[in-house]
């Protein structure tokens, strides 16, 4: 939905009756959506620990379906912005409940692989919504409904998810700890009392912020970059280029990471991802500065989708949710980590365009490479491999207290 409104938001803004120059299109829309997701990460995540993984996941699906269907009745851009803010709540909360489900129902060695597939599913969603929007615009090029219908279609998978989760039992770990109420203070005390949890959590926070900075600036503005280079025009538009980039980039990147995870581990996947992202951003920035435009969209944008959209993001929430104690896994750990990753959104979408106007697109792209550089350092210097970690499942700690400090993670094959 972000990419749907990204290139089309100004047109929707005009259709909503707003005069040019009013806030609300493009970055303002994304800020409201991510603001709702930030609230959902903390509040919805807290409810995941208090009410259970299944109940909150079901609530998220119902909210997704309700807001999707409500899009059909939007008549101005202001109401759309309010609806997007509400939609953001389940976007943040479903990561907390979803990862808690995975980490408590799938055995070590498998749950890591499943957790890293989140980026693949997200990219397929981006690819799908852009394809649906393109087909809608080709079918009804003059219709004002073309931007509402693809957004409303998000209700269909949400309803399917709600129906399927009805048959899924609550996790046994949560039922055993359902009476336990863990405060944020106790959560941080538990995290920082154990070396493995501390390193994984700090890595997750840094990596999440770094990924958001790079994706929130470079990837979100791929249509702007492509249009600015003058390579678009009938019959090729920015959406067609975006679809082409994701079509070639998503399958190898989203599938390769989980497949290689048992051999490489989370740390190496993250390191390779950040290194690829640095190469793509530095290469794209230098190409723009030197006016070698042909290299930007086909090569470096594709490399960015591999590294920035997938490999460096795949271990972020997976590692945090793996090492967290059951008493605070669902919201206070995974939700807080996702909240940290969403904070840079307000900076990137608000300042990046102005920064581009000040220093130029090439130098701005080079500056963005500092974000994956920070992520790379966190992967190399902070993170320690935890593939196969199982202390949260076998003899897991109860608060207050925890496992002995400095315990090494146990590596196990996926099979």
Can you offer a commentary on this structure?
By secondary structure, the chain is an all-alpha fold. Helices cover 73% and strands 0% of the residues. Mean pLDDT is 77; it is low at 1-11, 13-25 and 395-415.
What's a concise summary of this model?
This protein has 19 helices and no strands. It has 415 residues and is an all-alpha fold. The longest helix is centred in the middle third of the chain and has 52 residues, at 238-289.
The overall pLDDT, averaged over residues, is: 77
Specify the overall morphology. globular
How far apart are the termini?
37 Å
Largest sheet: none
Radius of gyration: 21 Å
Number of continuous helical runs: 19
Uncertain segments: 1-11, 13-25, 395-415
Number of strands: 0
User: Strand pairing plus helix content: what structural class?
Assistant: mainly alpha
Element string (H = helix, E = strand)? HHHHHHHHHHHHHHHHHHH
Classify the beta-strand content into a percent band: under 5%
Helix content: over 70%
Lay out the secondary structure:
Elements: H1 2-15, H2 27-51, H3 53-70, H4 77-105, H5 111-115, H6 118-139, H7 148-152, H8 155-165, H9 172-177, H10 184-192, H11 195-219, H12 222-228, H13 238-289, H14 296-311, H15 314-323, H16 329-342, H17 345-359, H18 361-368, H19 370-382
Helix pairs in contact: 2-3, 2-4, 2-16, 2-17, 3-4, 3-8, 4-15, 4-16, 6-13, 11-14, 11-15, 11-16, 11-17, 11-19, 12-13, 13-14, 13-15, 13-18, 13-19, 15-16, 17-18
List keywords for this structure.
0% strand; 415 residues; mainly alpha; globular
